[in-house]
């Protein structure tokens, strides 16, 4: 059953690449309202592609970006594939070697790569299982299992419509198991099943001082400066050992079990290389914690953007009216995003002087998730992946957040398995994002094997 499907995948790669390039040309940036129509175009493209494969598929409008749901195949086993067709903004544009939405195939010392926004996160990954299904259907006339495809267009902007959509469409989405393709390989040769994801709390603080921007000579010394207020607050969110100072922040954070610590140590992760690859040499995590532990199993508070005053060319002696910062918390274990939001806001309010106002904007809140690896599907998938890649598959953690993983459990009582083929150097969310053609090809082959194993 499987071999002809794998052969078909190999033979069809040039077309599979062309289809991915077509999807990558659509600038479906979800966080930017200007690109809302492009997100609809991407959703329609996917609906059409699924219909071309014989799926019944529809675009489902929400108050934000549309959802795409397709149904195909038959059988006792019902699998749901999740991916997201939206992408991150492309700034800073001047650092791209090619226009982000004019994707290119490039030769590199590690082989060919597909370069463009969304190549890895998540259009390339999403197309791995679409292409695997296409090959099954082409060879056998039908899929070996019942398959639901579920593609979201708001993942990169906090998924505001996801929970209401899932709650309103339980029957449409409920399957035996969700398969999510939005994570990494452990390394070039070692596939991974990600069993832990961090949660995420996104908060924006806006501090307002004087009613309008002022001349910093006329008013400096007399008027409170919101940038000074803001940086003072931000500088107090960590202590000298790198721990976050928000009261109660570590409630629900547990130490690694000795078994998991040993498993991760056996992976032979090269901390120095991981840092060197991005031009660094010192870990900025909590003192005494290794890099892998800091990224996979410890919570953080990071500043993702900061505004205020004059940032343009040259110099301007302005004392601004407003300053703002985007702050995100990655969460682990049973940390409660809503409790942390309240504690954080309370702490900030207490540091704002009487003459300033503070306003908060919320950018999503999701719990961390830990997968139940006792489901036999995990061992089956592990074997299928090990058959495809040079080294056996590993169970890993991940520092990123994929809120839908938790919602599958809480809303649909469905376990999720996270398997992806991205690499640390794919530059997701950065200029020059890429996906290796090898990731794409072996990713498609991996899903064909997993489909065979799970059906
Ligand atoms: N694909 C990423 C998550 C990811 C990143 C998994 C790195 C494995 C390694 C996903 O699309 C993403 O970036 N999610 C956002 C979440 C969000 C709510 C904006 C994230 O993690 O920042
Ligand atoms: Zn993603």
Automatic annotation (TrEMBL):
Domain Peptidase M20 dimerisation: 197-353
Source organism, top-level taxon: Bacteria
MF terms in GO: metal ion binding; peptidase activity
Keyword Protease listed: yes
Keyword Cytoplasm: no
Keywords attached to this entry: Hydrolase, Metal-binding, Protease
Single biological process term from Gene Ontology: proteolysis
Gene3D superfamilies: 3.30.70.360, Zn peptidases
Pfam families reported for this sequence: M20_dimer, Peptidase_M20
Name of the protein in its database record: Acetylornithine deacetylase/Succinyl-diaminopimelate desuccinylase
The species this protein was found in: Rubellimicrobium mesophilum DSM 19309
Lineage: Bacteria, Pseudomonadati, Pseudomonadota, Alphaproteobacteria, Rhodobacterales
């Amino acid at each position: 059953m499987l071999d002809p499907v794998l052969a078909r995948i190999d033979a069809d790669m040039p077309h599979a690449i062309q289809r991915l390039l077509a999807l990558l040309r659509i600038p479906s940036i979800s966080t930017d309202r200007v690109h809302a129509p492009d997100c609809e175009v991407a959703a329609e493209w996917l609906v059409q592609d699924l219909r071309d494969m014989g799926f019944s598929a529809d675009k489902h409008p929400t108050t934000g970006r549309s959802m795409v749901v397709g149904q195909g195949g038959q059988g006792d086993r019902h699998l749901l594939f999740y991916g997201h067709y939206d992408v991150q903004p492309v700034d800073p544009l001047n650092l791209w070697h090619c226009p982000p939405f004019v994707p290119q195939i490039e030769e590199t010392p590690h082989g060919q790569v597909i370069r463009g926004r969304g190549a890895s996160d998540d259009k390339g990954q999403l197309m791995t299982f679409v292409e695997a299904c296409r090959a099954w259907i082409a060879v056998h006339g039908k899929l070996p299992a019942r398959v639901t495809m579920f593609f979201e267009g708001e993942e990169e902007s906090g998924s505001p419509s996801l929970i209401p959509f899932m709650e309103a469409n339980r029957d449409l989405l409920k399957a035996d198991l969700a398969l999510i393709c939005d994570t990494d390989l452990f390394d070039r040769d070692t596939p991974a099943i990600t069993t832990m994801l961090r949660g995420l709390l996104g908060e924006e603080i806006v501090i307002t001082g004087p009613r309008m921007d002022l001349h910093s000579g006329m008013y400096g010394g007399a008027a409170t400066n919101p940038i000074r207020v803001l940086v003072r607050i931000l500088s107090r969110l960590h202590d000298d050992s790198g721990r976050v100072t928000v009261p109660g922040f570590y409630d629900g954070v547990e130490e690694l079990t000795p078994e998991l610590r040993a498993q991760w140590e056996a992976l032979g992760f090269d901390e120095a290389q991981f840092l060197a690859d991005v031009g660094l040499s010192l870990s900025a995590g909590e003192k005494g914690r290794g890099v892998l532990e800091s990224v996979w199993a410890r919570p953080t508070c990071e500043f993702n953007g900061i505004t205020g005053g004059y940032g343009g060319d040259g110099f301007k002696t302005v004392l601004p009216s407003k300053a703002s910062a985007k702050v995100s918390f990655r969460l682990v274990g049973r940390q409660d995003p809503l409790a942390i939001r309240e504690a954080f806001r309370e702490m900030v309010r207490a540091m704002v002087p009487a003459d300033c106002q503070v306003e908060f904007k919320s950018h999503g809140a999701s719990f961390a998730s830990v997968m139940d690896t006792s489901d036999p599907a995990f061992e089956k998938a592990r074997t299928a992946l090990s058959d495809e890649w040079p080294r056996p598959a590993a169970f890993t953690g991940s520092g990123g957040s994929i809120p839908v993983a938790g919602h599958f459990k809480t809303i649909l009582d469905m376990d999720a398995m996270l398997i992806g083929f991205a690499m640390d150097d794919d530059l997701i969310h950065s200029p020059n994002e890429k996906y290796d053609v090898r990731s794409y090809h072996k990713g498609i082959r991996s899903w064909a094997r997993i489909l065979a194993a799970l059906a």
